[in-house]
Amino acid sequence: MPHSSSNDTVNTPIVLTIAGSDSGGGAGIQADIKAISATGSYACSAITAITAQNTLGVSAIFPTPLEHVEKQLDAVFTDLNVVAVKVGMLADSSIIKVVAEKIKRYSPKFLVVDPVMVATSGDLLLEQSAITTLKSELLPLADVITPNLPEGAALIGCDVPETEQAMADMITELRNLGAKAVLLKGGHLEKDQNSNDLLITANEVEQLSAKRVETRNTHGTGCTLSSAIASYLAQGNDLSSATALGKKYISEAIAHADELNIGSGHGPVNHFYAIQAGNR
In which pathway does it act (predicted)? Predict the structure, then answer.
């Protein structure tokens, strides 16, 4: 059973991120830990793959041996009171199955799945068989999944939408994936002045809008948003509020991204903009 301290004066919500490591620090586990920490929760992790990565791209991926993924998950769940779990990069079907099995066994209150399947280049990162496993084993357990437009299209087998109407046409099939909610992110519709996301629940569709920021420093935005949502859920917010708070956080982190000068490619967002502003 998770250990509970006799001193209840500090009860920080604990969020577990299950994802790949980004050696450049902008995305993956590193972005997740920054986002969870910056939004006021405690971050712990299980690493599913080690990438050799920087702001210019990924040069190698080494999947964590399956047994070690299991041991990390057991170690965290048997000791820490994990309230919310965020799942990011899962390299193959076997890791997806292990993660789904552990989620069922330990029953965290909230599960946020960011289905990392399509690279910025448009290349599929998951084999088709792994996408099938993701859809059958993990997505139905999720409180919310957070696909961008290429990922949403890959999940339901349609063309990547290029208009808001085409985005809206995906709603019914996305609901059929079985998650309690879907946050379909419209950031790829670059002609639009605003970045509009759709929070799709069983009976409603809510639009979340933020002004589009011109910056090339957007590495890790998906990881950061999904982690922030998990963090805000763990703190007791309902899904609509947690999503709105997460959208506000990532929008500010993007707006302040150019205050950082990291690498020569697509740099990271500024996870700690609020702390830096407080130190000025």
Answer: Cofactor biosynthesis; thiamine diphosphate biosynthesis
Residue 266 is assigned to a structural domain of this protein: yes
Could you say which of 17, 48, 133, 218 is catalytic?
Answer: 218
> Catalytic site residue 265?
no
Tokens of 194: 């605003």
- How many domains does the chain divide into? 1
278 labelled catalytic: no
Query: Which residues, 6 or more positions from 231, have their beta carbon under 8 angstroms from its beta carbon?
Result: 13, 15, 35, 36, 39, 40, 41, 84, 246
Catalytic (active site) residue 133? no
For residue 243, give its domain range: 14-150+217-272
| Percentage of residues in the chain having pLDDT higher than 90 | 65
pLDDT tens digits, one per residue of 63-106: 999 999 999 999 999 999 999 999 999 988 999 999 999 999 99
User: Which residue in 135, 185, 243, 246 is the catalytic one?
Assistant: 185
